[in-house]
Design brief:
Layout: H1 22-35, H2 47-54, H3 58-70, E1 74-77, E2 81-84, H4 89-116, H5 119-137, H6 146-161, H7 166-183, H8 193-209, H9 213-239
Antiparallel strand pairs: 1-2
Helix pairs in contact: 1-3, 2-3, 4-7, 4-9, 5-6, 5-8, 8-9
């Protein structure tokens, strides 16, 4: 992860996909670098430097930074330019509050919709969720939590998609990216989280299979709230020099 203020060498990132719109390609490259912690909070994002390193003109970089600003991942200060947003404990608490409400609603809607599906389609959907949960079992004990986090996100996306509400799932995705960019540096401090999360995943899928929409929504919110409390406490500690 880059230290605050230092952009570093963007050529170390995956190659830019030039088959796509350059604006989209630059946007996705920078977005993923921010969300994955490669570009940490406070990292300066000088337009000309980025354009030179990626061998593109300034126009797609400018538009990509504008879109990242709209998504809440980048902030632009007059006379200083763009930088990766630094998230305070209060900001993060607010993001988690929104995430908790939205994902709880998505899980409730998914459970209700799941119960209304024809038997064969319902069984197929449940099997897909079970397979996604099974894949997490193999990585629960790994010291490096990145693969668990990736598979965890895939499971949640599959659950949320069952809600049938694309606008809702898009909003959840935006909020999750902002949270992830703030919390990724603390994953090493959460060694017990994968096992606890997996227990909750299994319980959540059981509630969904039984059609218990209220119970599934409550557990989904508790699942997010538990991680929120730990991450915010670590963020507060890091501000006082005790990460």
């Amino acid at each position: 992860m880059n230290s605050q203020g230092a952009l570093g060498n963007l050529t170390d990132l995956p190659a830019l996909d030039r088959r796509r719109s350059l604006t989209d390609a630059v946007h996705d490259l920078l977005r993923d670098a921010i969300v994955n912690g490669v570009l940490g909070p406070g990292t300066r994002l000088p337009e000309v430097t980025i354009a030179c390193q990626l061998d593109v003109s300034a126009t797609p970089v400018r538009e990509a930074l504008r879109r990242l600003g709209e998504a809440g991942l980048v902030e632009t200060v007059p006379h200083r330019g763009a930088s990766v947003v630094s998230c305070s404990p209060t900001d993060l608490a607010n993001l988690y509050e929104i995430h908790e409400v939205l994902e709880g609603h998505a899980v409730r809607s998914a459970t209700v919709r799941l119960a209304s599906l024809p038997a064969a389609e319902r069984a197929s959907s449940l099997a897909t969720l079970a397979t996604a949960a099974d894949s997490l079992d193999a990585v629960v004990g790994q010291p490096d939590q990145r693969e668990f986090n990736r598979l965890d996100l895939l499971l949640h996306r599959k659950i949320n998609a069952l809600s049938g509400n694309d606008l809702l799932t898009d909003e959840i995705e935006q909020i999750h990216r902002r949270i992830q960019s703030a919390r990724i540096r603390f994953e090493v401090h959460l060694p017990d989280r994968p096992a606890r999360s997996q227990e909750q995943h299994r319980a959540l899928l059981t509630l969904m299979e039984r059609g218990n929409a209220a119970g599934a929504m409550t557990l989904a919110r508790e699942h997010i709230h538990a991680v929120r409390d730990v991450v915010i406490s670590l963020l507060r500690a890091s501000e006082y020099g005790h990460p």
